[in-house]
Every structure is written in C-alpha cells, then in structure tokens.
Amino acid sequence: MVQPVPAESSRVAIVGGGLSGLTAANVLRDAGSEVVVFDKGRRPGGRSNTREHDAHRFDHGAQFFTVRDERVRPLLNAWVDSGVAAPWDGRLIRVEGSTIRPAKPSTRYVGVPGMIDIARSLASTVEVRVGVRIKSLTRLDHTWIAVDSEGETHAPFDRVVVAVPAPQAVPLLSDVPHLQAAAAAIEMAPIWAAMLVFESPLPLDFDGAFVADGPISWMARDSSKPSRPEGEAWVLHATPEWTRDHWNIDRPDIPALLLTALEDRWGLMPPVIFKRAHRWGFALAGDTTPAHPIFDAESGLGVCGDWCAGGRIEGAILSGIEIAHLMVD
C-alpha cells in the first residue's frame, strides 16, 4: 500500500480548468498543497464561458446558476460581495406546445460582466497553464507524470485530479482501470449554441425560456443580464437530438437554422445583425452518472466534474469541493 502524502506537502496536478477543477485547486491550495492547473483552452472556464465579438458578448455555455447547498454559499457570498456575480431577475418561462407557464421561482445568479468571470475569479488565486492539452498520465515510483500533446513532460505530482468531461477523461485514466471504467460508462450529449444579435427588440415578453419540444431547448435574452452591453443579444441552445442530427452541418449555417425554429414558434423576428455558432461536444451527462466524484486513495488519482455531481454549475463546484476533501482526508 502506498503511504498517503500529507496535503500540506503534496504537489497536485489538475487536468481541466473548468469550475470543478478550479474549485478543487482552490480548496487544495488552502489545505497547503502546491497546485498546478492545466487547461487546453486559451483561458480557463470550460462551459462557464463568455464569447466576445467586438461590442457583443454572449454566455454561450452555462447560462446561470442557483445555490442550494450550503457548502457553496460562502463562495457565492464572496462573488456577490466582490461584484463577480449578481442575481439575474430575468422573466423566465416554460414552454410545451401551446402551454406557457412561469418558470419555477428561484434566485438565479450570473457572472458579471459574463459567466467567464466566475472562472476568472477562481483562476486568479492558483497557477493555471493554458493552452496545454494533457494527453497521458503515468504512475511511476509513487508519483504521477503528465505528458502534453507537444510531448512536454510535467512532473512529478503526488496526486492528480482529472476534471474534464468523462469521454475526454477515459484515455487519461488507464493506470487506474476502475476509474477508467467508471468514466467510460458515462454518455454525454452535445449541444449546438447559436449567438444572435437583432436589429431591434424581439416581440417576446420574457427573457428566458425552457422549451420542452422542438429543436430549441433553451433561449435567453443575454442582454437582460446585469452589466451586459446594450442591444438585443440572444443565445439559443439546440436539443441534443437536433444537435446530433445536424452534427456535420457547417458552423455558419447553424444560426439560420435555429432562427427558423425560433420563428416557427414565435413568428417573424427583426433582422439579424450578428450571428455565430458554437458546438459543445460534451455538454450534458446522461442518467448513468455517479452521485459523487471518485478518488482512488492508493494511487492518488481522482475524477470530478459536473457530470459526476448532477450537472449544473453548482454540481461542478460541489464536485470540486468533494474531490479536494477526499484527497485532504
């Protein structure tokens, strides 16, 4: 049995700079670990992200978050106090066929001035290496060696947290087969997101809608969120089924197709003055997700993410908290 490494003397690699990985990094740092976060993107954040195009801004991934678990409350309070997050008082509805009813009352929060700013706040207190795609993890002499896509070695690490979508985690977990098998069992669904700016306000008396049928599952007036630019900016999320059916459609054609679906339900809309699309390959976890992050104490390898904590931003944060506590304990 490998002797456990005390948290205060350990060096931990976090693969994935989404909210789960960044939260784990902060908790482990506070416990005394030296932490390095690796993220393949130009900046951390994962699906809690914001796209900027000139004067236009879009929360094209995660749209908002709620807090139900008291373990997340201190983070929320700190974000609100520092101006990183604020309540979104948007008018939300649920739509199914011709039935429209108000969405369930809830206090919903957004990052300010964009969802990316939650990740920026968490990333500001730990070492984050962006543009680094970790391709393999190898256990050697009681330490972990990470190798990136350019062949560069990052080592040694006493522990590793893999905080990426389950399908992307599978090749990184080969040295701990039961973790690899758990990740391989997870199915994750894709989502096309369309970002649209209209010439004038849409003739709709709501700011966001959960849609139960049709190609669109969610639509939101992004410009209704606090501290957003003026204008009529909307984000449309397609259903996983529609996304799979249109997987190979050219990206520039997606906004027009989803705009047609929007107009089929709500009628003719004002002219579009800006449009873009983004494809999230692993957006939603299926029904096979575990209830908690998984940690192998003998090897010091753990996996976490919103996919193993019920989805949603709060799930991502909680999984990061839990995997860090499993390591410390």
Describe the structure.
By secondary structure, the chain is an alpha/beta fold. Helices cover 24% and strands 32% of the residues. It has eight helices and 20 strands. The chain has helices at residues 19-30, 73-82, 116-123, 166-169, 177-184, 240-245, 254-266, 312-328; strands at 11-15, 34-39, 51-53, 56-58, 85-87, 92-96, 99-102, 109-111, 127-130, 134-140, 143-148, 153-157, 159-162, 188-198, 208-211, 216-221, 232-238, 272-285, 294-296, 301-303. It has a seven-stranded mixed beta sheet. A six-stranded mixed beta sheet has the order 9-2-1-13-20-19, with helices on one face. Strands 10-11-12 form a three-stranded antiparallel beta sheet, with no helix packed on it. Helix 1 links the parallel strand 1 and strand 2.
Instruction: Please identify the structural class as seen in this structure.
Output: alpha/beta
Order of helices and strands, N to C?
EHEEEHEEEEHEEEEEHHEEEEHHEEEH
The order of strands across the largest sheet is: 7-6-15-16-17-14-18
| Overall pLDDT confidence | 94
Brief digest:
With 329 residues, the protein is α/β, with parallel strands linked by helices. The protein has eight helices and 20 strands. 24% of the residues lie in helices and 32% in strands.
Question: Which descriptors apply to this entry?
Answer:
disordered N terminus, alpha/beta, six-stranded mixed sheet, about 325 residues, seven-stranded mixed sheet, about 25% helix
Any chance you could write out the topology, listing elements then pairs?
Elements: E1 11-15, H1 19-30, E2 34-39, E3 51-53, E4 56-58, H2 73-82, E5 85-87, E6 92-96, E7 99-102, E8 109-111, H3 116-123, E9 127-130, E10 134-140, E11 143-148, E12 153-157, E13 159-162, H4 166-169, H5 177-184, E14 188-198, E15 208-211, E16 216-221, E17 232-238, H6 240-245, H7 254-266, E18 272-285, E19 294-296, E20 301-303, H8 312-328
Parallel strand pairs: 1-2, 1-13, 2-9, 6-15, 13-20
Antiparallel strand pairs: 3-4, 5-8, 6-7, 10-11, 11-12, 14-17, 14-18, 15-16, 16-17, 19-20
